[in-house]
Amino acid sequence: xxxxxxxxxxxxxxxxxxxxxxxxxxxxxxxxxxxxxxxxxxxxxxxxxxxxxxxxxxxxxxxxxxxxxxxxxxxxxxxxxxxxxxxxxxxxxxxxxxxxxxxxxxxxxxxxxxxxxxxxxxxxxxxxxxxxxxxxxxxxxxxxxxxxxxxxxxxxxxxxxxxxxxxxxxxxxxxxxxxxxxxxxxxxxxxxxxxxxxxxxxxxxxxxxxxxxxxxxxxxxxxxxxxxxxxxxxxxxxxxxxxxxxxxxxxxxxxxxxxxxxxxxxxxxxxxxxxxxxxxxxxxxxxxxxxxxxxxxxxxxxxxxxxxx
Length: 309
Ligand code: ADP
Prior knowledge:
CATH topology of the largest domain: Rossmann fold
Mean pLDDT: 92
Bound molecules: adenosine-5'-diphosphate
CATH architecture of the largest domain: 3-Layer(aba) Sandwich
Number of domains: 2
Structural class: alpha/beta
Strand content: 25-35%
Radius of gyration: 24 Å
CATH class of the largest domain: Alpha Beta
């Protein structure tokens, strides 16, 4: 189990970046981390990777602490950073083999493993090429291959699929899922809410250094009441219309911004005709209407009071 207990970090300038966060990650689980800028995500991730020392609290990866046993801990982690570092003049093969050697993998095993992963990522034809001749997407896939090479028990992915096309993104997650199997722990940080929703078993949201939500994407979405209806009007709505809409059954929130109305409603198909009638009777001309089911983005908005991205 990857266990985080009451983890806090106060920087020397007095900023309380993390204020006592506790959670655990189960074997084989992919945990997504979301939070607005300044929420404490990077601080949490640096603490998890053992780069920073906590002011308070403890981290344990199957009983190993990054603070107490940094060498053992680092051997068991695989990291994909946003900006991967390769020796650009060396071939892809050499880069991966050197990494494998650093992790103490025997020559025979690392060559087998590198060949296997390059094949999984469709990079076999590039193995003798210097990394600087690879495209951004190929380098990104090579980065993921490298992070998986030593079969880490804790995989940390920071925006791992940025720059990958749809096919490569799908391929990357298939390989990751296959490689982590039932025993490794994965932490996935991203601003791509669709990808987080799709790939994560659970999602953790932090805001102002505190954990504000932790559950499966679907349970989090289910916790958000209502659907959204966005109505574009030809002119800004009057206050009277906003008040009138709020009195309608199934409507429990109305916001107006310029000539847009944003409503939160239950039963959108039932109340939409009444809402449109209300607008028209009030002299408003409707330009377009969009209805949206709740998403992880709504969860984020509810938990942090801020829009994602
Ligand atoms: P996020 O990654 O969610 O944007 P960070 O963990 O980078 O958030 O930052 C959380 C808070 O800690 C912010 O207020 C930030 O300004 C502050 N902070 C981050 N790093 C340092 C540092 N080295 N020294 C002082 N304050 C810091």
